[in-house]
Amino acid sequence: xxxxxxxxxxxxxxxxxxxxxxxxxxxxxxxxxxxxxxxxxxxxxxxxxxxxxxxxxxxxxxxxxxxxxxxxxxxxxxxxxxxxxxxxxxxxxxxxxxxxxxxxxxxxxxxxxxxxxxxxxxxxxxxxxxxxxxxxxxxxxxxxxxxxxxxxxxxxxxxxxxxxxxxxxxxxxxx
Length: 175
What we know:
Blueprint: H1 5-27, E1 43-46, E2 49-52, H2 65-73, H3 82-99, H4 110-130, H5 137-147, H6 151-164
Antiparallel strand pairs: 1-2
Helix pairs in contact: 1-3, 1-4, 3-6, 4-5, 5-6
């Protein structure tokens, strides 16, 4: 537990992203949410106005300075975590795609998705013991990369982070 606004916002975003990725791993569908909410319908008011939230994990989403700044400055009672959560789900999905040696829009195997999901669950167990008043997305990605025991998986997780999270890449331990 933390009283830090940025840490609360990052954890809220991580919760959103991990929930989305777990749904992807369970269904095998990177755009699972469209079965419940059609594209163009899910819009939220918050952070910087009315925004449609990308919830398709196969999208090429990158970690932006705006996401980082919003998490660090907006009060947690009004912070909207979906954009950063979508980034995290897309990052994990891209790792699974790369582990299987596929092109970006190809579907990774359910086995690979579930193996990545198992690493995510292990990371979640550690998250509660690690999150302090300065916890952020680089710390979360560091925990995940640290769980990649297989050197090839770790290299892939780092490569995807360098492409998708270049803003914070130098702060990700293990890469």
